[in-house]
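Researcher: First entry.
Model:
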Amino acid sequence: MANLATGTAPKKLSRRNASLGDRIFDTLNIIFLCLLMVVTLYPFLNTLALSLNRAMDSIRGGIYIWPRDVSLENYKYVFQQSTIFHATLISILRLVIGSITTVFCSAMVAYTISREDFVLRKFITIAFVLTAYVNPGLIPNYLNIRDLGLIDSFWVYIWPGLIGVFNLILIRSFIDGLPDSILESGRIDGAGEFRTFFSIVLPLCLPVLATVALFTAVYQWNSWLDVFLYNSSNIKLSTLQYELQKILQNSSASSSAASAFSNPDAAANAVTPLAVRATMTIVASVPMILMYPFLQKYFVKGMMVGGVKG
C-alpha cells in the first residue's frame, strides 16, 4: 500500500537487509540473554531438584537440575509438623492485612505531603526521611514495642512497618508526576480532598500501589526475626518462616539420630539440613512466584516512576 503522505511504498525491515554489525549485535544480545536466563533459573531448578531428591543421596553431590533419586520424604518431613498449617494461616493473614494497610496508609500520607498548600509538608517529609538515616537500635526498638503493648500480639507484625519511607517517597513521586489539570478538574466539580483521593488519585496510582504491595507482601511473607523477638513464646502467633527455621535446626539432630539406627531403611529416609533447606526455600517461595505474574505489568510501570513526566 502506498504511503498516503509521500506516495511511496514503505520500506520493509528485514534481517537480510541488516548490516553485518547489526547481525553481530543481535546475535550477541541473544547469547547474553540466554546466559542470563540460565544464570537466573539454574539456582531455583537446582534447589527444586535437591528438594525432590532423597536426602541421603543428595550428600553424594552431582545433582544439578534434575533429581537423581526422586522422593517426597523431604516435603513429608516439613509438612508433618503439627504447627506448620496454623503458622501458614498466620503468615497469610499477616501478608494480606499488612499489605493492604501499608499500601492504603502510605498512599494517604504520600498524597497529603504532595499537596503544595499543605503547611507542614516539608517538616513531615524531613521527619520521615530522617528515620531512614537514623536507626535507634535493637534494644530501644524492643523497649518501644513493649511500652506500646505489642508483645505477644498479632499487631506487632503490622503497626511498626505501617508506613515505610521508601514506599512513601515512591508513591509521592508518582503523584507529583500526575497532571495537575486532572486534580483541578475534580475540585471544580466540587470534589473534596477525600473524594479526590479515592476517586481520582488511587485509580491513577494503581501501578505504583501494586509495586508497593509486592514489596510489602515479600517482606511480610519472608520476615521471621520479629516473630523471634516479640512472639517466640506464643505458638499461636508463629509464622511459616519462623517454623521453617525451627525445622531446619531440628533436622540436624534427626539426621544424626537416624544415621545411628541399625535399620538401613530408616537411615535412607532420614533428612539432612541441605535437603530441608532446599525444601523450605521452595515452600516459602511458591506463593511469591504465583503472585508476581498478576502484578508484573503494574510492577514494571511502577518502577518507571519519574522516567516520563506527564
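Researcher: Second entry.
Model:
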Amino acid sequence: MTETVDVLLIGGGIMSATLGTLIHELQPDWKIAVYERLHDVALESSNAWNNAGTGHAALCELNYMPEGPDGSVDPAKAISINEQFQLSRQLWSTLVERGVLDAPTTFINSTPHMTFVRGEKDVAYLKKRYEALKDQPLFAGIEYSEDSRVINTWAPLLMQKRRKGEPFAATRVPAGTDVDFGALTHQLIDNLRDAGMDVVKNREVRSLKKQSDGTWLVKYRNSIGRAPGQVRARFVFVGAGGWALKLLQKSGIDEIKGYGCFPIGGQWLMTSDPAIVQQHKAKVYSQASVGAPPMSVPHLDTRVVDGETSVLFGPFATFSPKFLKNGSWWDIVGQVRPSNLGSMLKVAFTNFPLIKYLVSELAKNHRRKVDSLRIFVPTAKDDDWTLLQAGQRAQVMKGGKLQFGTEVVAAKDGSIAGLLGASPGASTAVPIMLDLLQRCFPDQYPDWEPTLRDLIPTLGQKLNTDPALAEETMAETAEELQLTA
C-alpha cells in the first residue's frame, strides 16, 4: 500500500526545515514527511563548515551594492537583503520564546560585520557606500575609518605589520551575527519530529510523476538495503541543494525548462589557535578578485560551531562536476537537455574571466593560499592554518547568463516547487519560504496571515521606511536572541 502525505520535503537542509516549521504552525493537521539521502540532515550546504554562516544582512557584503558605470552606488538591494534577514531573525526569536529552539547561543552569536579594502579606488568606493548607508535605519551604527589605530581596535589581525603608506579603509557594524545553520536545521527538524513529522534518512528520491488526481507519485530507494518504495504527496518541495535541478527536471514541469547549473566548490583556511582567535572577533569581507563569482569574495570570519570559536579565511574556489559535496561525477553532464543546451554553451563562451579565475585558484598550493591570507593578515604563518573542504554551490544558468542568487521554481498549479542557487540562501530562508507559500497556496495564504504575523510581527511592513519600527524590532529580536552590539 502506498503511503499518502500532505507535504513531502525532499532534502534535510535549512530550507526544508524552515518550510516544514511554517507549515506545521499553519496547518498542524497536515501530514509532513522529509526525505534525506544522506545519513543525517544538514550535511550539505546547511552544514556549518560548508557555508560562511554570515547571517547575510548586506552589512559587509560589497557584491550586494556594486558601483555603477557612472560611479554611483545604489543601496536598494542591500536594504532588500537586510529586510529579508530581519524576517528570519523575527521567526527565530519567536521560536526561541516558544521553546522550539534551544538557547540562542547554540545557533547565533554576536559578531561585528566589517568590510576592509585597500587601494585608492576601493577606498573611494567604500566611502561612497558608507555615505549611502549611514542614514538608512537598518544600517544604524555603521562606522567608517581610514585610521589604522581605529581599525586596530576593531580587528587587530588586519593591522599588524601592515605596510606604511598603503591606502586602506574599513567599515564596521557592531550588530552583525554569526549563524550556525547546521545547528539551527537540526533543532527545527528535531522539533518537527517530536511533533509527529516523518524524518527519513538514507532515502534517495529517484522519480516524481504527476497523477491524474493532482498528487505526485514519488519513487525512492533506501541507501541501506537499497529497498525501493513510493509515496503520494499533495505538495512536494525540492530543497535538495544542487540536486534540486535534477529532480525538478525529472518531474517534467515546464517551468524548469531552460535552467542549468554550474557547480563551484570551495575550501577554507581554518585555525582554532587561541592566540589567533582571541585577536579576531568579526566577519571581514573585501572585494572579489577579477572574474571571481560573488560567493568567492574573500573574507576573514569568526565562526562559532558547537561552542568552539575558530577563524576561517577564504573561500578558495575549486571545481568538481558534482552538484553536491556528496553528489555524482555525472551531475554536470546529466543536466543537459535540448531546452538548456544553448543557454549553457553561451554561458561557457561568455564567462572566460570566471574560467581563468577557477584555473588560477586550482593552481594554488597551501603556501600560496596563505599568501592570499597575508593580504588580510600580514603576520599569518603557514603552519598555523589548515585546509578545510567547504560545500558545493550550483549556480543558476538561465537565458545564457550565470546568475548569483536564489530562485524558486514552481509549477503553475503550485503542486511542486524547488529552490535553485546559493547566496544569500540560508540567511533569507524565511522570506524565501514565505514567498513560496504565497505562490503555491494562494487560496489558503490569506487565512494564514494572522498566524504568520504572530510568528513574524512586522510581516508585510518595511522596516527601513519606519525608523522607529526598525529600531524597536531589531532591539526586541536582539534581546530575545541574546545579541549584544
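Model: Note on the second entry: The two ends are 56 Å apart (CA to CA).
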